[in-house]
Amino acid sequence: MVLVTSGWLLTDPPTVEALTPYDLRCEHRADPLGIGTARPRLSWRLASPVRGDRQDAFRVRLLRDGVQVWDSGWRTDDRTYVDHGGAPLTSQTDYVWTLEVRDAAGDQSETSATFATGLLNKEEWEAHWLEHDYDTDPKFEPPVDRAEPRSVRQATIAPPRYYRRSFELKQPVARARVYATAHGLYQLSANGQRVGADELTPGWTDYRERLAYQTYDVTHLLREGKNVIGAVLGEGWWSGYVGWDTRSHAHHYGKKPQLLAQLVVDHPDGSRTVVATDGSWVERPGPIRFADLLMGESYDARLELGDWSSPGYDATGWAPVGDMGADPSTLIAATTEPVRVTEDLPATEVTARGNGRFIVDLGQNIAGRVRLRIRGAQAGDRIRLRHGEMLESDGELYTANLRTADATDYFVSAGAAEEYFEPIFTVHGFRYVEIDGYPGELTTEDVTGRALHSDTPVAGRFECSDAGVNQLLSNIRWGQRGNFVSVPTDCPQRDERLGWTADAQIFLPTAAYQADVLTFFDNWLADLATAQTDEGAIPDVIPHVITGRHGTPAWADAATIVPWTLYRMYGDDRVLRKAWPSMRRWVDYVHRANPDLIWRNRTSGHYGDWLQVGVSTDRDVLATAYFARSVEFTAAAARVLGLEDEAATYGELWERIAQAFRKEFVDAEGKIRGETQTGYLLPLAFGLLPEEDAAVKHLVADLEQRDRSLTTGFAGVALLCPILTKYGHADLAYDLLHDDRNPSWGYSIKHGATTIWERWDGWTEENGFGPVAMNSFNHYSLGSVGEWLYADVAGISQSPESVSFRDLVIRPRRGGRLTWAQGSYDTPTGRVSTRWEITDGVLRLDVVVPPGATATIHVPTPDPDSVRESGQPLGQQVCRVGAGTYSFTAKA
Ligand code: RAM
């Protein structure tokens, strides 16, 4: 077992002397295996220390088995991507691509990368679905201690099964790949070794329509002669608990887990051996007696199977599998990074509670699981692990907020001197673990917290002189990590963990500054499109399970906001092309139901400004503002896609909604109905007011009257600091940033938060814990202020017309307690970074602009005449530059 201590880290660009491409991607992924398209997009980033440097031309060549199959030719173009333009790629084939770039001076640089296609045609699937017939089993006895009341539901649990197949290879192995997936969760082994490091595969998609298969290279695991391939199969999202439904209503996709795998071995002579799941496999139960994402896992080491996936193992007693035949209809190649263990956190504190019971603190709230070392246990000794985010005032674990999620794992010892336990098919949201029944003294060395999440590549970094703000950023980052588990979820701990659409759209800009989330959200958008109702409404949660609600203002608008934001951040117009039908159908749905353009009808659950504080933002104001926003982005998408008529139609509709908004909600003094902070923020941010001063004045007056305290919920909070800053009130934004009274970010930090809380009053000095019915301590929505830290404090943003940060706006805003701040962001073409610092009355601003980009730099000084760049007088506050490193000084 390899422990991962590195964390979720940023990879720095190479240090270079001239224009150099790096970070080559195919379909936005580094050296991917099993891509599902015959015409992939190839892209790269650029680094250069040379001022004004840019790519003048590029050339891509594609090779298969050393033979060139496509040459783009030299293209005079500064874009850093190209779509494969040769003959469609061949299925199940490895490719190498070389990239040459040429700078303005004519100097060239070359590099290369690889990718492999998956099964590009459904007919290539020979594998059959395998399942165990749980119906004929003796009634399932819940393992150790899974007591009432949950046992009612456990009666329908399908305990994991182990599957294996031994086979002989008559020739050496040149290349071996496994294409695998499950209705459920699976983990593959070959010849006694785990295959890959992916977790919770195949991830969660709308299985009724789309099921991702994963591709693994197993060349190094196989050999001529006898081999074994095997898998353990559990329930996961397919048939386990998801959300708050009880099992009787659940089984969202099916009742029994099923396995599908196809091993393809290429031999040196060009021949191929295929070993696919079929009736020749055998299966049996094993040590995992129970596994569920929400409830936890039970492992009985006495039932271990030994070297069950190695040749020479005696498989007597393994049963024939249920062969359910072939059906590849829903299969798609995985398009995004899998969930992985990205960091191991050593326990920071162990408190003995008597009688073999301990409370362990990891020091950080995470989504993941524990790896436990057990020494000196007797066979049959049972250890229970309960997980929680907080402690009660008496030091006991706080679990009331988990609702019906047990979040409890069990380990039964086989009596070996040293044993390890780590569940594989469950994930808990926790900082503390209660370990009960441990033999002897538990120490911090015995417990490791393993953080699990979708391994989206890190893209951004932010740091400043204030410890509280750095902690806020850390909490935002961990909120993202704990909730980007295959899909963007609301929370990782209670019986929910659903892809709530508003949470996702509100947090997306922040998420995208921190990590490359393009493929992650593109995958989710595909499920959004399939879940759209015939009328055009979008369900509240994607993948669509549970709520039965759809078309909620600010929630369903994810249909337009997510694709448009992805396009702005990453510049991949294919996202818009795919999303266009659902964008358009969504706004048409709202329009049809609200011909007078005030969105009052068909507002579904209408949560308003969810979890706002002591005020009630007018629901029609919120809904109509969002209607305008969705129409604006639909029109913008149409323009990008060259759909001129639609662009004009939706553009004109937007004008009419804006007019209707003003007529209905804005009075003669510029007050907006409801007079709440969010009520002002939405039309200001969405550009619905021709004259903004009055709204800004009322917004500021509201904050002042409340002693500079916020009232915003999910919908308003993301806009608060950016809008205040935009309209000249950065001082107010900084006050909110540093505030530590309730409600504020600082209040949770003052009380030890290591993640963003769902509600401002999750825990208060006056009342202790907030309402247990809904009190997550790891919800990212209120962390949407992260965008402002990157865009306005570090000062990294782009001009309104720019996509993929080709035209940067570098405009750091000083303020609050900060004496310095720095940030970096890996744009699709390369890294931009900033650092500002004030010492002894002098401001220093360092900026790095990537090749090909332009930047408008605003030096934050009150005295433009004092500005110097690299020691030379500049005499102005704003300048426009190309690529390179710049160093400004000015009076502070
Ligand atoms: C809660 C979720 C989510 C929110 C909905 C309305 O149950 O946690 O954050 O979007 O309600």
Protein topology:
Blueprint: E1 20-26, E2 41-47, E3 55-64, E4 67-71, E5 75-76, E6 81-83, E7 94-103, E8 108-116, E9 130-131, H1 151-154, E10 161-169, E11 175-183, E12 185-190, E13 193-194, E14 211-217, E15 225-234, H2 236-239, E16 258-266, E17 272-276, E18 282-285, E19 288-292, E20 296-300, E21 319-320, E22 322-323, E23 331-333, E24 339-346, E25 349-354, E26 357-375, E27 382-388, E28 390-391, E29 397-398, E30 408-412, E31 418-421, E32 428-436, E33 447-454, E34 460-464, H3 467-483, E35 484-485, E36 487-488, H4 501-514, H5 518-531, H6 558-570, H7 573-593, H8 619-640, H9 644-665, H10 677-685, H11 693-705, H12 714-726, H13 730-738, H14 745-750, E37 763-764, E38 768-769, H15 786-793, E39 796-798, E40 807-810, E41 820-827, E42 830-839, E43 842-849, E44 854-858, E45 868-869, E46 872-873, E47 878-881, E48 884-891
Parallel strand pairs: 14-23, 20-30, 40-44
Antiparallel strand pairs: 1-2, 2-6, 3-4, 3-5, 3-7, 7-8, 9-16, 9-22, 10-15, 10-18, 11-14, 11-16, 12-13, 12-15, 16-17, 18-21, 19-20, 24-33, 25-26, 26-31, 26-32, 26-33, 27-30, 27-32, 28-29, 34-41, 35-36, 37-38, 39-40, 41-42, 42-43, 43-48, 44-47, 45-46, 45-48
Helix pairs in contact: 4-6, 4-15, 5-6, 5-7, 6-7, 6-8, 7-8, 8-9, 8-10, 10-11, 10-12, 12-13, 12-15
Alpha-L-rhamnopyranose is lined by residues 490-491, 496, 500, 502-503, 607, 610, 774, 779.
